[in-house]
Amino acid sequence: MIEFINVSKQFREGIWWGQKKNVQALHDISLQIKEGTCFAIVGESGSGKSTLGKLLIGLEKPDTGQIMFQGSNLHEADRQKRQLLRRDMQIVFQDCYSAVNPRMKIKDVIAEPMRVHFQYSAAEIKEKVKQLLEAVGLDEEAGEQYSHQFSGGQLQRITIARAISIQPKVIVLDEVINSLDVLVQISILKLLKRLQHELNLTYLFISHDLHAVKLFADEVAILDKGEIVDCAHQVKHFDKLTHPASRRLIEAQLPIVPQLAKEEYPVKKGLYVS
Ligand SMILES: Nc1ncnc2c1ncn2[C@@H]1O[C@H](COP(=O)(O)OP(=O)(O)OP(=O)(O)O)[C@@H](O)[C@H]1O
Ligand SMILES: [Mg+2]
Predict the structure, then answer these.
(1) Average per-residue pLDDT for the chain
(2) Are 153 and 187 in contact (CB under 8 A)?
(3) Which atom of ligand 1 lies at the shortest distance from residue 206's CA?
(4) Is 13 in the pocket of ligand 1 (CB under 6 A)?
(5) Is the CB of 9 under 6 A from ligand 1?
(6) Is ligand 1 within 6 A of the CB of residue 42?
């Protein structure tokens, strides 16, 4: 469904009065993501994970290489086609507070992408917002409130509702659970899993937490200084991740989290938000 073919991306970085230097954010990335699966990208800070996600949803352009989506080159399509392709891909970020306009009511936050991409009537939007809030486990009344009235976990549910509002095919999840406490992380993962099955979504799951990846993803690639250094086509085969960068990430995990997560989170047994 998605294919990166020899994709590279450089940035010019530096303070305005100082010398600028080139940063190779991604180098010669090739990967394939199958429809309906969750592909995880794991790496240390600055390894290029977010850049990869931004390239996929069209927020950045590759310097070289191609990104194919359902047979079309994402960055060579004409304006109209690009607009349609954009609709198929959404992103959810770690920092949900800055991803939501604090002056907007939640119902308008969720409705925003629908207003951009579809010509729904006011009544249709109202009904869809209600359904979306329900789908992510929130009451209709939440629509009348503002972002500061919610916890991080609730607000992340709202950004997920916004992301699915225009029926995308792919969602980039950029460290979506990392600022939440462990139990809330698990409930968000359950929600995402349920939505993935119900809506046949394909996920690019960006994380530096290998335990969450093991519980949630189907495939994993390890990114180190902009390059894919390791991958496992089945996440259960973590023992196949032998590159020093992968070992560093595996050894950096807290041992208590997976035990808790395994009990609370029976992967792929039909999950529903409690
Ligand atoms: N818009 C930009 N301008 C200049 N440099 C950038 C830009 N975006 C990313 N970079 C640089 O590219 C490299 C990769 O950044 P990226 O944000 O993709 O890493 P990351 O793996 O997502 O890190 P983190 O885990 O901290 O979010 C970094 O060195 C970063 O400073
Ligand atoms: Mg990042």
Answers:
(1) 87
(2) yes
(3) 22
(4) yes
(5) no
(6) no
Task: Lowest mean pLDDT of 59-68, 132-141, 173-182, 233-242, name the range.
Answer: 233-242
CA of 221 to the centre of ligand 1 (A): 17
Verify whether ligand 1 is closer than 6 Å to residue 158 (CB atom). no
What's the whole-model pTM score? 0.87
Mean local confidence (pLDDT), 192-205: 94
Q: Which tens digit of pLDDT belongs to each residue from 224-264?
A: 999 999 988 776 677 778 888 888 888 877 554 444 444 44
Of all ligands present, the nearest one to the C-alpha of 41 is 1
Residue 202 has pLDDT above 50, yes or no: yes
Q: How far is the CA of 12 from the centre of ligand 1 (A)?
A: 11
Supply the pLDDT for residue 248.
86
What is the rounded average pLDDT of the residues 41-63?
Answer: 94
Query: Which residues fall inside 5 Å of ion ligand 2, going by CB?
Result: 50
Probe target for ligand 1 pocket from 22, 49, 177, 179, with the most ligand atoms within 8 Å of CB: 49
Distance separating alpha carbons of residues 251 and 210, to the nearest angstrom: 10
E strand spans, 44-193: 64-69, 72-73, 89-93, 170-174
**Complete domains list, the chain, with CATH:** 2-49+58-264 (3.40.50.300)
